[in-house]
Design brief:
Blueprint: E1 2-4, E2 15-17, H1 27-32, H2 34-40, H3 42-56, H4 69-84, H5 94-124, H6 126-131, H7 137-165, H8 170-201, H9 204-218, H10 229-238, H11 242-252, H12 278-284, E3 288-291, E4 302-305, H13 313-346
Antiparallel strand pairs: 1-2, 3-4
Helix pairs in contact: 2-7, 3-7, 4-5, 5-7, 5-8, 5-9, 5-11, 7-8, 8-11, 8-13
């Protein structure tokens, strides 16, 4: 059967041929055809992306500001709690710590958007899924476009924070935007694709993710640096986005010169020795050694950086590889489970 829909302004002028043998393809053939199918669905996905972008902010006074306002508001809460001393996380200045937290928030929000994106996309296009016949890879490509666009907008805002705070590393930020960020989105979307068919049938899936995500965020190094030693290793291996977020932010934020400066008199113990604080690790994420004050100085101790702790590269590689694998297999799973889900929705 051949379908042609040139009259619809949303759908492109396309011809889709449905082959009965397509449902009998083996796993290898399905895996091999994922990327060509995603590329072939780009035109329709782009039209749907443009339609959704206009519709989502049509009756909104703030418009696109809603893309980065939620992570900015969440970061502001922790900056206020830290500055007021209610929660002692870092002694960096308001701008520096805001940039540190917002970088973590934008990466975390990208992961959560990717995790919930497939389910939300299917729910938003539920009627089209049951009434029209078109490649289901369109929803995957659409999810990539929507989460990727939101992520890039937040990267622009984070760049302003880093420029104001004097913390910007252009090479690291470029890697965050084109390497670590997309890999984190793919990891989230890959995991979300496995939940999407069930989320289309049961609202418990989306509600459970919304309930668990705040606690999950607190267990992820977003408002604090990745712990060193055994604790950091466990977090990097058990928590999927933790290692990627740490490495991405580590490169984007360069070491503050103020982290090597002399501490304030109130922070100097009587023995003229200082201990490393979370503020020092919040920028470079490495422990600091201390040296006694020089006789020629003014009596204030000096802080010198110790041997840097190696980044959890092995955990990053493993989680990125798992994310890509989950993304490809999840796309196949969406195609295989699609007819069953459509039949359940129709009944």
């Amino acid at each position: 059967m051949t379908a042609n829909t040139p009259q619809n302004p949303i759908l492109p002028d396309w011809d889709v041929v449905y082959d009965a043998e397509a449902s009998e393809l083996g796993l290898v053939q399905r895996l091999w055809g994922v990327l060509p199918a995603l590329w072939g669905s780009r035109q329709l996905a782009w039209r749907l992306f443009q339609r959704n972008l206009i519709a989502n902010y049509r009756q909104s006074f703030l418009g696109w500001f809603w893309i980065f306002l939620p992570p900015l508001a969440a970061a502001s809460v922790w900056v206020f709690l830290n500055a007021s001393g209610t929660v002692r996380i870092s002694s960096l200045g308001p701008v520096g710590y805001a940039a540190f937290v917002f970088c973590g928030m934008l990466l975390w929000q990208g992961f959560i958007d990717g995790l919930m994106g497939p389910t939300n996309t299917l729910l938003a296009n539920r009627s089209a899924l049951t009434k029209l016949q078109f490649p289901r890879e369109v929803f995957v490509t659409l999810c990539l476009l929507e989460t990727g666009f939101d992520f890039l907008v937040r990267v622009v805002v984070a760049t302003l924070f880093l420029l104001v705070g004097g913390l910007l590393d252009w090479v690291g930020l470029l890697l965050l935007a084109i390497v670590w960020g997309p890999l984190l989105l793919i990891l989230g979307i890959g995991l979300g694709l496995w939940l999407a068919p069930l989320g289309l049938l049961y609202k418990d899936i989306s509600r459970s993710i919304a309930m668990i995500s705040p606690l999950w965020m607190l267990l992820t190094p977003i408002i604090y640096p990745l712990p060193t030693g055994t604790t950091g290793t466990v977090v990097a291996w058990v928590n999927p986005p933790a290692a990627i977020i740490h490495v991405a932010r580590e490169g984007a934020i360069r070491t503050l010169e103020s982290a090597k400066a002399e501490p304030s008199p109130e922070a100097v113990p009587k023995n003229n020795l200082t201990e490393p604080t979370v503020a020092d690790q919040a920028v470079s994420n490495r422990p600091l050694d201390t040296e006694p004050s020089s006789p020629e100085g003014n009596g204030a101790s000096q802080v010198t950086p110790a041997i840097p702790v190696s980044l959890p590269w092995l955990a990053v590689v493993c989680w990125c590889s798992l994310g890509i694998t989950s993304f490809v297999l999840g796309t196949v799973w969406l195609n295989v489970s699609g007819p069953i889900i459509i039949e359940r929705l129709a009944n």
